[in-house]
Amino acid sequence: MTAATAGRRRPRIRLESTAIVYLALIGVIIVGAILVATVGRNLFSAGSIRDILTGMSVLGLVAIGQTLVILVGSLDLSVPYVISLSSLLAATTMAGDPANIPAAVALALVVAALIGLANGLIVTSLKVNGFIATLGVGLMVKGYLDTNYQGSAGSVPAAFQYIGATGIGPVPISTIIMLALAAAVFLMLTRTRTGHHLYAVGGSPAVARLSGLRTARPVVIAHVLCSITSALAGLLLASRLGVGSPTVGSQGGYDLLSIAAVVLGGTLLAGGRGSIWGTIGGVAIFAVIDSVMSVMQVNPFLKDVVRGLVIVAAVAVYTSHVTQRRRARYAPTGADVPAATTDARAAAPASPESTDTRDADSAEPTRTTEGTR
Q1: In the list 23, 179, 208, 250, which could disulfide-bond 213, CB 3.0-4.6 Å?
Q2: Whether the model pTM is above 0.90
């Protein structure tokens, strides 16, 4: 075995992005607990835990759908307007009558699915970039909201408000719903053909097409599911507020925050790599940071500064991690290879049996030779 071969086979500890984000979450919790203790509060009290989990619910629902869209290499900027529209449709349809809850929920989900279908078809059929397509659709929904609603509307019955106001111990029901949805999406991504197609199309649409996949279908499905999860977030906000609001989505900034949570969770914006549990970890980091800064009465504008720093730091860590993994795949430089071997390689003609292929997960060039591994 040559020195070069031994160097290539040297074992290295490599942490996946999901593990990194949860290590970061532990660090944020430790630092947050220390900061909160300086003002005489306890971050691990039942009330603080409830506030953190409550803060995770709505953003978590939106981020789950945004993860699916980003996995296929797209984006969805219409989510805040879908949230607002869903809250209004649900509240006005319920009109304070518990008997109207099933119809109101169904109407909100169906309308949201149609908006997601429009987003997906514009991206796939008209070949419009997802950023522009969803921004345009979102602005159309915003125009409808501004034209038909001047303020809060409708009334949510008390039976539906229990969803946003009650919990099991310190765990809100809304958080349980969000985690259950995350588990369902995780199973879809890992156990179903549709989930595998989402990763394949996001990793390389051209390769997926050459493999016989219908690349348009996963993109449309991702956009539809993203709009449905946004509608669920709108329903949750309506249950908390007791009414529907045309600005509840845009005021929350759920479009950019959901994208930030997905990126913070380790999902690549280019698509093809990421996980739902990494996204949940990113959402949890934001929730802990917001809770700590609220307890310490930090200026609201400074909160955005902290969020921005966290996002930049996370992306820098992931970029460094991916760069190290890529360097490990390449052969050593000429300084590490004996001179005779280097000269022999330079003099040898190109072999037709040597081909360059790409790793399906990382799209990194790897040299393979017939008969060897």
Answers
A1: 208
A2: no
